[in-house]
Design goal:
This protein is 39% helix and 19% strand. The protein is α/β, with parallel strands linked by helices. Helix 7 packs antiparallel against helix 8 and helix 7 packs across helix 9.
């Protein structure tokens, strides 16, 4: 099979039907896999009732865990991994595939993700220069995990996503690891709609989890910087608790401070009782 598409879903019934309808319309011959992470809104049941859709029901152990289970089931020469709130048009995956096939050492490619307001999705000031004069595929440090097309034959060399990361930073870590293995990560000048936030609850723990993931990345790939990074996170959290007027932010940074103070190493996931034991 040429193409497999792995859609990650968690309580995403609001957006999943449109996502799958577009995939079945534009890519009818692809292997289509929905990996459902313990949804409670009928998402899994909806997907199971669709023809030619494979479903995997997995524990809610985070995005990386769900992605890796989908990759294990995918059989296509190219594998697209995507959020359920990404809405594809005809030609989107073809543009990513052409970029990958043109560069032998490219392992993954992603588009320019657009917000519903028609602007490129922001990934911070350090990422913004990648968008400037983007007329051809460009090798970058990382691409968003909302939509990634992979060469399956290079996956054994790359390894799966790091399952210590529950939510956020998985795509950043994957990109760093790919480049350190001599592989390319491509940003392609193809615009794709990403609604954003469809599976993220209004929970302060997600803010704290983002900082925990960043610390895991620095500890793994930049150990010389990790101590300074941890001190900077602690200082920011202290200032936020004192000065941030948003109660959600105060709760998140208070939790982060408490857990960092209790443990010399990194705390386990703020969103799990125990983290996955499976690592790439």
């Amino acid at each position: 099979m040429e193409l497999s598409v792995v859609v990650i879903s968690h309580n995403s019934l609001r957006v999943l039907p449109e996502c799958l309808e577009r995939l079945q319309r534009h890519y009818p011959h692809a292997q289509l896999i929905v990996v459902d992470a313990a949804s409670a809104d009928g998402s899994l049941e909806f997907a199971r009732n669709l023809p030619a859709v494979e479903t995997l029901s997995v524990a809610n152990r985070g995005y990386a865990y769900a992605v890796n289970r989908g990759l294990e089931a995918a059989t296509g020469r190219h594998v697209a991994v995507m959020n359920s709130d990404v809405y594809l048009e005809a030609g989107d995956l073809e543009a990513l595939r052409a970029a990958l096939d043109d560069r032998p050492k490219a392992v993954m490619a992603g588009p320019v993700l657009m917000t519903p307001h028609g602007r490129p999705q922001s990934f911070g000031p350090l990422y913004a220069p990648y968008y400037l004069n983007l007329r051809a595929p460009r090798a970058v440090s990382w691409i968003s995990g909302a939509l990634i097309l992979l060469k399956r034959d290079l996956l054994p060399e790359l390894g799966g996503m790091d399952e210590r990361l529950f939510f956020y930073n998985e795509d950043l870590e994957w990109g760093i690891r790919a480049r350190r293995k001599g592989l390319e990560v491509l940003l392609v000048p193809r615009k794709v709609l990403h609604l954003g936030g469809a599976s993220t609850p209004n929970d302060p723990r997600f803010i704290a989890e983002g900082y925990r993931g960043g610390l895991i990345v620095s500890q793994t790939h930049y150990p010389w910087l990790h101590g300074l990074h941890r001190k900077a996170v602690w200082l920011e959290a202290r200032l936020r608790v004192l000065l941030d007027p948003n109660p959600k932010h105060k709760a998140a940074y208070s939790l982060l401070l408490r857990r960092l103070g209790q443990q010399k190493g990194l705390p386990s996931s703020f969103l799990l009782e125990e983290s996955s034991k499976i690592h790439p």
